[in-house]
Amino acid sequence: MIPARIPTSDSASALALLNTTTAADALNTILADLLALYFKTKNFHWHMAGPHFRDYHLLLDEHADQIFAMTDEVAERVRKIGGTTLRSIGHVCSLQRLQDKNAEFVTPADMLSELHEDQSESQRRSWFLFESTRQRSQE
Q1: Could you tell me the fold of the domain covering 20-138?
Q2: Measuring CA to CA, how many Å separate 129 from each of 8, 24, 66?
Q3: Tell me: the pLDDT tens digits for 27-65?
Q4: Concatenated DSSP letters for the chain?
Q5: Inter-residue contact 111 to 41 (CB < 8 Å)
Q6: 63-100: string of b/e by CB count within 10 Å (b at 16+)?
Q7: Long-range contacts of 109-112 (CB under 8 A, 24+ apart)
Q8: Does pTM surpass 0.85?
Q9: pLDDT (tens digit, 9 = 90+) per residue, 73-119?
């Protein structure tokens, strides 16, 4: 959707703003997924149990830190291209595509499997965004 403030006589400016808005929207969706993945990882970190508790607990803590570090990079990229970024948990919830896990109990194997699937899906979507913007810039 092109915002109403775009002057229709200046198609180059309109196209640039449309591309910025589209890229910012896509990056904000990725950011929402990263924040959802971060929180799910911390959830599993907090609720880990079993014979491999210490190893998995530390692994998930480190992984959560790495995911959280990526959020600032994505949000700052949105701002750098002229967009606005997420403002609240509600905004994150409205954009996230990854499913929350609110189960009372999840086995360690299921936790790791679900995080692996979510991470793979997030990487696939990020790669698709990268490739689509790269192809547009070459046209």
Answers
A1: Ferritin (1.20.1260)
A2: 27, 11, 21
A3: 999 999 999 999 999 999 999 999 999 999 999 999 999
A4: ---TTS-TT-HHHHHHHHHHHHHHHHHHHHHHHHHHHHHHHHHHHHT--STTHHHHHHHHHHHHHHHHHHHHHHHHHHHHTT-----SHHHHHHH--SPP---S---HHHHHHHHHHHHHHHHHHHHHHHHHHHHHHH-
A5: no
A6: bbeebbebbeebbebbeeeebebbeeeeebeebbebee
A7: 111/44, 111/47, 111/48, 111/56, 111/60, 112/56
A8: no
A9: 999 999 998 999 999 999 999 999 999 999 999 999 999 999 999 99
Say how many CA atoms lie within 13 Å of 58 toward its Cβ. Answer: 3
Environment class of residue 36 by beta-carbon count within 10 Å: exposed (0-12), middle (13-18) or buried (19+)? buried
Query: What tokens appear for 1 in the block?
Result: 């959707």
